[in-house]
């Protein structure tokens, strides 16, 4: 395992990028429905089979630990990015090919963005929601074009999608500022949907980092 300490100016090591990387946002707990763990395991194995690397929060607990171990078990590449203050609480995954320890949450999110070609949201708590909504916001404002996908197993993300529809109906998501995201109800659809989105992605660069940090 390669473990590094990252500062705000850290650059991505070339060897940490196996083709395309997918950043997975998910809970540091397993949730109450066993299907969530099954889904995380299936997603990790699907990513490994497809040659997609995982970028995630670096822990070995909850859904994040399940998806990371599944990628590793399938022979895939895992990059964990974890703030120093969470190293003990979230139990860093020893088997990851690379673990980047950062000083704060802002640096973690920036590096996760830099190293990812797409974002997939599994069930999770307020931290998962915050990470997801930030990517949605910056995509809405034209600061990046990387695919964002909600894995809506058991209707987990339906309340959020209902809220977004409510915002649109009330005029707070206006024409020209529509949100762009994908929704998959089954794990088997995730990789094909991402690949189709990559094929449609415009060649313009992403300006997120220059403006956000």
What does this structure look like?
The chain contains 7 helices and 8 strands; from the N terminus they run ββαβαββαβαβαβαα. By secondary structure, the protein is of the alpha/beta class. It has a single domain, classed as Rossmann fold (3-Layer(aba) Sandwich), CATH 3.40.50.450. Strands 1-5-4-3-2-6-7-8 form an 8-stranded parallel sheet, with helices on both faces. Helix 1 (34-49) packs parallel to helix 2. The protein is globular. The two termini are 29 Å apart. Mean pLDDT is 87; it is low at 7-17 and 208-213.
Order of helices and strands: EEHEHEEHEHEHEHH
Question: What is the total number of structural domains?
Answer: 1
Mean pLDDT reading: 87
If you consult CATH, what is the topology?
A: Rossmann fold
Unreliable segments (pLDDT under 50, ≥5 consecutive)?
7-17, 208-213
Overall 3D form? globular
Major sheet: 8 strands, parallel
CATH architecture verdict: 3-Layer(aba) Sandwich
**CATH class placement:** Alpha Beta
Q: What labels describe this entry?
A:
alpha/beta; Rossmann fold
SSE diagram, text form:
Layout: E1 2-5, E2 21-25, H1 34-49, E3 53-56, H2 62-73, E4 78-83, E5 98-102, H3 105-115, E6 118-121, H4 126-140, E7 148-151, H5 158-169, E8 182-184, H6 190-200, H7 208-212
Parallel strand pairs: 1-5, 2-3, 2-6, 3-4, 4-5, 6-7, 7-8
Helix pairs in contact: 1-2
